[in-house]
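User: I'm putting together a teaching handout on how multi-component assemblies are represented. Below are the sequence lines for each component of a complex, exactly as they appear in our records. Could you produce the 3D structure of the whole assembly as structure tokens, so the students can see both representations side by side? Please keep the chain order the same as the input.
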Amino acid sequence: QVQLVQSGAEVKKPGASVKVSCKASGYTFTSYYMHWVRQAPGQGLEWMGIINPGGGGTSYARKFQGRVTMTRDTSTSTVYMDLISLRSEDTAVYYCAREQLLHAFDMWGQGTMVTVSS
Amino acid sequence: EIVLTQSPGTLSLSPGERATLSCRASQIVSSSYLAWYQQKPGQAPRLLIYGASSRATGIPDRFSGSGSGTDFTLTISRLEPEDFAVYYCQQYGSSPMYTFGQGTMLEIK
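Assistant: Of course. Below is the structure of the complete assembly, with chains in the same order as your input.
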């Protein structure tokens, strides 16, 4: 079955960086764009960016440009989200999500909690 | 950037009642690119509706979506206990740019 399995929770200090992984299975990895969406505690959903697993092309939300990098490894069907210069406001659950038809997200990873605290 | 505003912020209803959730956009949104999600505590969001009115795979037919332009609606015809959750609308615009509404919490009255 289609699955997105993310890496485990992280605790980081301000100024550090974090890399979250998302391993896809059950479908052709390169056929669907992948996104990263985050959710701060008690807050709504915030789109961070998109990666094309086929060609590797990316586009990031303006808010995260310069701080986020999304990459992929086609040999392991895994996408990665790297966020640098972490601050307390980056404390959130980070989700990967697969884009289906008409730019909707039909499959989501289980989420990765990233806590930024001194 | 298109801003999506959902109303009400919280909706209190009883099982068996009808729920109507609104999503209003600051600019015209293509109906093809408006989606709705359900999120329960501690879980990832689940796609309910895409293309403004098409149900995702496995979604019961008590969920329906409608609307066009700047006004969109998610309707749950008869609430089941498992429907009490937070609901988000989401749109796609050029650039690319994806935005979510702030959410509507549907709670048991």
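A couple of points students might notice: Chain A touches chain B at residues 35, 37, 44-47, 50, 59, 61, 95, 97, 100-106, 108-111 (CB under 8 Å). The CA atoms of residues 9 and 49 of chain A lie 20 Å apart.
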